[in-house]
Amino acid sequence: MNPGLASLQAYPFERLRRLLQDVRPPALPLVDFSIGEPRQQAPELVARALTASLQQGLAEYPKVLGEPALRQAIAAWTSRRFTLPTGFLDPDRCILPVNGTREALFSIAQTVINPCQDVKSLVLMPNPFYQIYEGAALLAGAKPHYLNCDPGSGQPDFRAIPESVWERSALLYVNSPHNPTGAALGGEELAWLVGQARRFGVVLAVDECYTEIYFRGPPTGVLSVAAQTGSLDSVLSFHSLSKRSSIPGARSGFVAGDPAILAQFLRYRTYLGAAMPPFIQAASRAAWSDEEHVVESRRSYARKFAAARDILGEHLDIQLPDGGFYLWPEVGDGEAFARELYAAEHVRCLPGAYLAREAHGLHPGHDRVRIALVGSEAECIEGLQRIRRFLDNRPHASSQEKESAWHS
């Protein structure tokens, strides 16, 4: 067996299942805030494109590189969204369709890490983090190096990374906007990270799957920063339709960036057999070519956050994030909170400890929970009201009440 398998920790939702397995909740419909799976209505134009193309290409193997029409649609959207110079993003060399960012974020570590090299043996990642980053590092024969997120900024202090750590690093995962804090990195910080990655020979993998769910204007993308340097060297940007277009079941996204890295990534994925079915490619073209459904989705998420402020603001520190659809409040012991809430109201949320590791003497998730506002507006309001009732009735709730820090 691959020895890295023994190093993998249980996935957060398996840990949550074990935490709640002996709890008997009340006879209320379950409200599930635990998983970041958008359950909003899929865009009609995407459903139509999928249905119309179901018979397309069933008699032939799909290409790992994807159809030219899909890569061109992705290049057009990316160039518009991030204001890239004409021709900067070559759809034949700088874009690779992938089966969702999860698959690609895992596979890129297997591609760029040399397990036989001790010098470049670290993979840097934020803490809390998307657990795929950690698993990818371990199964590639590398060692995760956790960068604790600052409670104020919601992102790691990347400038505090010692040069000795940079020198030993092969890959840096960045998540902007960040899951679960919702904090996005600005252009100045991204530019500094691009410079450091090139200086130390580190692949900069920027997970931007939440970049289209924003509330104060679009977050800066790493491709915009790279364009200002005139080069895509060392830079990879990962995007997904799961969050942007609320179609997680399609497993569709792309990675764009350094053509030399993508050439090797294509080779790896060709052997892996990771090709997107033709009907998913057709649906994806429709999604990347339309913005109207994305605008309406943002409006819906904004209404959910407004409801969270109104319903929970007297008890919890509810902040509007730069992007994403998560609440990340302090609640004391996150596991105890999740268990008690489930027992009292049949509402599931995820303990923050399941999304982080203790590192450098701190555990940045222990006293928090993640609440994913991914259901319908009615379902989210129902769940938020149950959380409010739980907090109202919790014996020690008064000691946890905080002034709302709502930022409009």
TrEMBL record:
Enzyme class: transferase
Superkingdom of origin organism: Bacteria
EC number, as in UniProt: 2.6.1.17
Protein name per its UniProtKB record: N-succinyl-L,L-diaminopimelate aminotransferase alternative
Biological process (GO), any one: lysine biosynthetic process via diaminopimelate
Keywords linked to the UniProt accession: Aminotransferase, Transferase
Molecular function GO terms recorded: pyridoxal phosphate binding; succinyldiaminopimelate transaminase activity
Cofactor: pyridoxal 5'-phosphate
PANTHER family according to UniProt: AMINO ACID AMINOTRANSFERASE, L-GLUTAMINE--4-(METHYLSULFANYL)-2-OXOBUTANOATE AMINOTRANSFERASE
Ranges for domain Aminotransferase class I/classII large: 30-387
A Pfam family it matches: Aminotran_1_2
